[in-house]
Design goal:
Alpha-Beta Plaits, alpha+beta, 101 residues
C-alpha cells in the first residue's frame, strides 16, 4: 500500500491549522483515506542576548521561537490528488514536505 506523508511546519499555530484544513478539504473531495492532522511536539529555541555588550554581564534578555508541526498521512493517493496538492495555494510562512513511502 502506498502512502504519502505531508509534514507541515510554521511559527504560528493559527496559520498552520488553516493550512491543514485546506489540505484536508482537497483530500476529502477526492475520497482518499486521510489520517491527521497529527500534532507533533512544539520545538522551542531560546536565545540569550546581552543587553549591554561591554558592561553589566548579568543584564540579559531571552527570546524564544516556537516551531509548530503537524503530519497528515494519505493512503493510496491518485495522480489527480498529487496534482491538486501541487496546485494548492498556502499562505506565506508555512513549510511543507511531502514524502512517499
Amino acid at each position: 500500500m502506498e502512502k504519502l506523508r505531508i509534514g507541515i511546519k510554521a511559527y504560528k499555530s493559527k496559520i498552520l491549522d488553516e493550512a491543514c484544513q485546506k489540505i484536508i478539504g482537497v483530500l476529502k473531495d477526492n475520497s482518499n483515506k486521510v489520517v491527521g492532522p497529527i500534532p507533533l511536539p512544539t520545538k522551542r529555541r531560546i536565545y540569550c542576548v546581552l543587553r549591554s555588550p561591554h558592561v553589566n554581564k548579568d543584564s540579559r534578555e531571552h527570546f524564544e521561537i516556537r516551531t509548530h508541526k503537524r503530519i497528515i498521512d494519505i493512503y493510496s493517493p491518485s495522480e489527480e490528488t498529487m496534482q491538486q496538492l501541487r496546485n494548492l495555494d498556502l499562505s506565506a510562512g508555512i513549510d511543507v514536505e511531502i514524502k512517499h513511502f
